[in-house]
Amino acid sequence: MTRKPVLALVGATGAVGGVMIDIMNARRDWPWGEVRLVASPRSAGRKMTVRGEEITVRALAPEVFDGVDIAMFDVPDEVSAEWAPVAAARGAVAVDNSGAFRMDPDVPLVVPEVNPEQIANRPRGIIANPNCTTLSMMAALGALHREHGLRELVVASYQAVSGAGQAAIDRLYAELVAVAGKQVGTRAGDVRELLAAAGLSAEDSPFPAPIALNVVPWAGSAKGDGWTSEELKVRNESRKILGIPDLKVSATCVRVPVVTTHALAVHATFERPVTVAGAREILEAQPTVVLVDDADGGAFPTPADVVGEDPTYVGRIRQALDFPNTLDFFVCGDNLRKGAALNTYEIAEKLAAELAG
Amino acid sequence: MTRKPVLALVGATGAVGGVMIDIMNARRDWPWGEVRLVASPRSAGRKMTVRGEEITVRALAPEVFDGVDIAMFDVPDEVSAEWAPVAAARGAVAVDNSGAFRMDPDVPLVVPEVNPEQIANRPRGIIANPNCTTLSMMAALGALHREHGLRELVVASYQAVSGAGQAAIDRLYAELVAVAGKQVGTRAGDVRELLAAAGLSAEDSPFPAPIALNVVPWAGSAKGDGWTSEELKVRNESRKILGIPDLKVSATCVRVPVVTTHALAVHATFERPVTVAGAREILEAQPTVVLVDDADGGAFPTPADVVGEDPTYVGRIRQALDFPNTLDFFVCGDNLRKGAALNTYEIAEKLAAELAG
């Protein structure tokens, strides 16, 4: 096509939408002829600035997709479920960051540096963006899988609260203020008492337990047999992205009092022998991975040093002592950037390049 | 013997020593004829109250062990290495909570509800208490192992800072005050800047990275090939306590901003089939384990609700979907109680019963 493509961002006024606008403002290449910002009717009319241009947010309606080539959705599952097909019916390719379509066999689930070829395979005109926890490890695992053949994955997460939305961030901040300067002592319920004394009721929290000075082994919703939605997403999405339908996966997902950036302890078993030196070489050659690793512990990634960064950071790479062909390592990735907005935008960029022929 | 045994507590004025005195004060049975409190010369002369009796702390010296039947050591490795043999030479059984003797083949490593028979096997007159991280999961794993035969263990820890001593607790409190009420934004280094602005230099921290609003995948010292001392303790001590010399273990040990109570995500593979219902039954029958678990997520243990409690709390028990004979579960245990002082005291109690014949 000769005209430049038109991009829509649905959910422009949300938390991930805001990160998306930061990403767009900082991008070097700019393939778009027009950007439309779309949100719920109550946010419509707000003005937001993208690359120096003031844009008025439009209310979500079928007409906003007319003439749009690519529509990015950063909205709750039920909004995507209803509106991504509307955008597709009006001729746009919908790139959806919700969970609504990820496991639909007619919707590819894409990480551009892992399975870019899947972008072309979109019979419904919809492409899904993976869950942030899964995404945090995909760049590293995809690169290692290509060389060594991934077979098994045991994962424990240290998940930031921002993955649960603004209310979760606000709650963590409020709880921190309530406990700071206090001794929590050695009695069960100390933290709960401090929160109650500060007027922070348990019922009002997005978390099922205190999140300050605590960790909460529960993320998402109950999916039966004790598993959470988040844990099953790690399993099912990893299988689909990597194209390994029988990949063995066990995940335990735990919230920690960190604002942004998910971390994962990964125990990965491969079909073929793998060494720490070989894994380092593969990961160093992967442009979207940064290796922060040395054997004596002077260097490793932590969430506080990875927040706001685009790449996935990998460290603590160790050969498992008792498991053949197995590596243990630690991954940190900004759950709002690569884990959400950035990956979605990278898919949109790939689509723009495809349209440009 | 007809007289009641004499108990010494070496390290009475330390953090674990304080918890030990709390435990002694709360104990129903009291088999001891005399308690001696021992500490470094600079703490000698201090008066502490045990069960209503004021006791003057004595300076560590060979004579303090004369007439002592059982000497509990809650002191650094190098102090135990020197003084536990002195106590043993003077006729006491030394029960040592340091890392000095744990892997000595002539020193049993004991968890009373798992391998009590090992108490009798003490040619050096020394019995070792396991590392707190290992201990947090031993009551549960020991019970499951007896029935199903443990083969493999993949563990990720969420470790409280008090395992690293009072300086670590103080640092977490100071960092919380420095970040509370501030937005940490979305840039790498935000937390570091807040800490620096509050006068908390990185060099003065017991942690190699910020611990507030962060997690730190490093505990203990470097042991080669990327492994930490803490991770190797989990492997080697689990093997010794459970009596499975070829147990396959991979551990990743991570500090989290929690004051007290370690949590562990455990992926355990057994020789024989195991069901969630069967595991629950076994754990419910284990007096030192409390099950807080329901499949739809309404109940699970968190550190804030387990601190100060004696038992190990287990929840989130799931049958691994892709790994045969494998359970995933989440454990919380107070690292200063069962993880340190309580287990040591329970060993001393068993010895007292043995002496009473």
Automatic annotation (TrEMBL), chains A, B:
<feature type="binding site">
    <location>
        <position position="335"/>
    </location>
    <ligand>
        <name>NADP(+)</name>
    </ligand>
</feature>
<dbReference type="InterPro" id="IPR012080">
    <property type="entry name" value="Asp_semialdehyde_DH"/>
</dbReference>
<keyword id="KW-0521">NADP</keyword>
<keyword id="KW-0457">Lysine biosynthesis</keyword>
<dbReference type="InterPro" id="IPR036291">
    <property type="entry name" value="NAD(P)-bd_dom_sf"/>
</dbReference>
<keyword id="KW-0220">Diaminopimelate biosynthesis</keyword>
<comment type="subunit">
    <text>Homodimer.</text>
</comment>
<dbReference type="InterPro" id="IPR000534">
    <property type="entry name" value="Semialdehyde_DH_NAD-bd"/>
</dbReference>
<keyword id="KW-0028">Amino-acid biosynthesis</keyword>
<dbReference type="Pfam" id="PF02774">
    <property type="entry name" value="Semialdhyde_dhC"/>
</dbReference>
<feature type="active site" description="Proton acceptor">
    <location>
        <position position="262"/>
    </location>
</feature>
<feature type="binding site">
    <location>
        <position position="159"/>
    </location>
    <ligand>
        <name>substrate</name>
    </ligand>
</feature>
<keyword id="KW-0791">Threonine biosynthesis</keyword>
<feature type="binding site">
    <location>
        <begin position="42"/>
        <end position="43"/>
    </location>
    <ligand>
        <name>NADP(+)</name>
    </ligand>
</feature>
<keyword id="KW-0486">Methionine biosynthesis</keyword>
<feature type="binding site">
    <location>
        <begin position="162"/>
        <end position="163"/>
    </location>
    <ligand>
        <name>NADP(+)</name>
    </ligand>
</feature>
<protein>
    <recommendedName>
        <fullName>Aspartate-semialdehyde dehydrogenase</fullName>
        <ecNumber>1.2.1.11</ecNumber>
    </recommendedName>
</protein>
<comment type="function">
    <text>Catalyzes the NADPH-dependent formation of L-aspartate-semialdehyde (L-ASA) by the reductive dephosphorylation of L-aspartyl-4-phosphate.</text>
</comment>
<feature type="binding site">
    <location>
        <position position="255"/>
    </location>
    <ligand>
        <name>substrate</name>
    </ligand>
</feature>
<comment type="pathway">
    <text>Amino-acid biosynthesis; L-lysine biosynthesis via DAP pathway; (S)-tetrahydrodipicolinate from L-aspartate: step 2/4.</text>
</comment>
<feature type="binding site">
    <location>
        <position position="102"/>
    </location>
    <ligand>
        <name>phosphate</name>
    </ligand>
</feature>
<dbReference type="InterPro" id="IPR005986">
    <property type="entry name" value="Asp_semialdehyde_DH_beta"/>
</dbReference>
<dbReference type="InterPro" id="IPR012280">
    <property type="entry name" value="Semialdhyde_DH_dimer_dom"/>
</dbReference>
<feature type="active site" description="Acyl-thioester intermediate">
    <location>
        <position position="132"/>
    </location>
</feature>
<feature type="binding site">
    <location>
        <begin position="13"/>
        <end position="16"/>
    </location>
    <ligand>
        <name>NADP(+)</name>
    </ligand>
</feature>
<dbReference type="Pfam" id="PF01118">
    <property type="entry name" value="Semialdhyde_dh"/>
</dbReference>
<comment type="pathway">
    <text>Amino-acid biosynthesis; L-methionine biosynthesis via de novo pathway; L-homoserine from L-aspartate: step 2/3.</text>
</comment>
<feature type="domain" description="Semialdehyde dehydrogenase NAD-binding">
    <location>
        <begin position="6"/>
        <end position="122"/>
    </location>
</feature>
<keyword id="KW-0560">Oxidoreductase</keyword>
<comment type="similarity">
    <text>Belongs to the aspartate-semialdehyde dehydrogenase family.</text>
</comment>
